[in-house]
Design a protein that fits this description.
Blueprint lengths: L2 H16 L31 E8 L9 E3 L2 H11 L26 E3 L7 H5 L3 E8 L7 H6 L11 H10 L9 H9 L10 E3 L15 E2 L9 H4 L6 H12 L5 H25 L13 H14 L8 E8 L8 H25 L6 E7 L18 E6 L8 E2 L22 E2 H12 L6 H4 L16
Parallel strand pairs: 1-7, 1-8, 4-10, 4-11, 5-6, 5-7
Antiparallel strand pairs: 2-3, 4-9, 8-9
Helix pairs in contact: 10-11
């Protein structure tokens, strides 16, 4: 192998590895655009703009107290199983769902009372519930699970691994996620490919593509490299010298790649800052003391600035932590749900305000669900869970998929109320990708396991 080919291979591998920095954790601002790719010709955002917003709930959200059985028979079963952590039924009356497609066998479900801000959105048909969704390799029955006769997701019930499987279809160590792989297909149609995948919560493998790289910013906007964007030690000459040093052409390919990326980061920071400064203030209020609301407010501003950023298709990532509630669930989970309800309602209203509601779809995700059984003051690691999908294009006021039996050792339970998912993350990803405009032929590029499923469209969109 000649030297030039070796260097080309090293450079490609460097870019692939760099895109995985931090995997599902938080990375430093210097990871801002590491390994960013070439830009397409600048252009304005077309009228068919679309965006996805992944709201990841780190720690494993407790499904049992997020979507609660309300009909008397199933509520009694729920309360008996959950004991000290069950939500009192009289607190659920105001959040009782009335889906446009009635649930079978007279079942009724209610949102947690803290999610009441989502009720008007559900009733207006812009919010749906995804029942019992989780990581799978292929459709799996309880008998197959018990017999271990089909492939199962690796390292079930492990936080880091299941976060990665949700986001990337492979366990911890994955270097591309399905949000980033979706970005791969659209980056060249954007006027500036840097702004295809945008992360407002740090770094996540979900947003890393095989070419697309997540652009990271904070809730205050683009992260500046202060040593070169303003006077350094009181000296502009010093700042200019530093800028020259870290952006100059280099002979070694790694040095050159780093300097090229820094140059692009400086340029991107200027573009974002200018675009945001030129926006009128959003009228929709966000409670910025709520970290999730602050992140979604920044996403709303970036979507409002889509023309200035030259964006046609975008994927965003925000997150909220604290859901690993083995203890103190009755005290802490309601606060987390309050933050979700407030943040998502404000984001919905902001999308309506800027006229982008039909073009933006937000959805929640989490490591896994939790056990239906109580350990006394909390719940333990589970598998399937309930999630939300929101946007003007969503066929809302529906509960999609199959609601599980409220029972222990029932037909959906692998133990302690850990749900065996009846809808796969792959199916959700394929449905969202199709809505974004990915062809059936290219769906395996986004969700490699989708060939295992005959149903590749969950019917979420009108």
């Amino acid at each position: 192998m000649n030297v030039s080919n070796l260097r080309a291979m090293q450079r490609r591998e460097f870019l692939r590895r760099a895109s995985a920095l931090g995997v599902t954790g938080v990375a430093a601002p210097w990871a801002l655009n590491l390994a960013a790719i070439g830009e397409a010709a600048a252009q304005s955002a077309p009228s068919d703009y679309k965006a996805l917003v992944c709201i990841f709930l780190y720690g494993g959200n407790d499904y049992g107290n997020t979507l609660v059985p309300y009909d008397q028979t199933n509520y009694n079963a729920y309360a008996t199983i959950r004991q000290t952590i069950a939500t009192p039924r009289d607190q659920l009356t105001a959040t009782l769902l009335n889906p446009v497609v009635a649930l079978p066998s007279g079942r009724q479900m209610a949102l947690a009372p803290q999610l009441s801000p989502l009720m008007p959105i559900f009733n207006a048909g812009h919010l749906g519930v995804l029942a019992n969704i989780g990581t799978l390799v292929q459709p799996t029955t309880l008998a197959q699970y018990k017999a271990q006769s089909v492939p199962l997701p690796p390292k079930l019930f492990s936080h880091n691994d299941q976060q990665s499987v949700w986001q990337a279809s492979t366990p911890e160590g994955a270097i591309s996620g399905w949000g980033g792989r979706l970005g791969d297909l659209f980056m060249n149609s954007n006027g500036n490919s840097t702004f295809t995948c945008i992360n407002v919560s740090g770094n996540a493998v979900f947003m890393s593509g095989k070419q697309a790289v997540q652009y990271q910013l904070s809730t205050n906007g683009a992260v500046a490299i202060n040593g070169i964007t303003k006077a350094m030690y009181g000296s502009q000459a010093c700042a200019d010298a530093m800028r020259s040093l870290i952006t100059a052409q280099r002979s070694h390919w790694m040095e050159q790649e780093l300097n090229r990326v820094v140059s692009r980061s400086v340029s991107a920071q200027s573009i974002v800052s200018t675009a945001l400064a030129g926006l009128p203030a959003l009228k929709t209020p966000f409670n910025t003391a709520n970290s999730l609301a602050a992140q979604l407010q920044m996403v709303a501003k970036l979507i409002a600035a889509r023309s200035s950023l030259g964006a046609s298709r975008q994927v965003f990532f925000v997150s909220l932590g604290g859901f690993d509630l083995h203890d103190f669930l009755p005290d802490q989970h309601p606060t987390l749900l309050t933050n979700i309800g407030s943040a998502m309602a404000s984001f919905h209203d902001a999308m309506v305000e800027i006229g982008a509601n039909n073009q933006v779809t937000a959805f929640t995700a989490s490591d896994f669900g939790r056990t239906l059984t109580s350990n006394g003051d909390g719940s333990d690691h589970g598998w399937g869970s309930h999630h939300f999908i929101m946007g003007g294009a969503v066929k809302g006021a529906r509960i999609f998929g199959q609601l599980p039996s409220v029972s222990i050792n029932g037909p959906d339970d692998v133990g302690q109320g850990r749900l065996l998912p009846t809808t796969a993350v792959d199916q959700l990803g394929a449905t969202l990708a199709s809505w974004m405009g990915v062809s059936a032929t290219n769906l395996p590029l986004v969700m490699p396991q989708i060939a295992n499923y005959s149903m590749r469209d969950l019917g979420l969109f009108a």
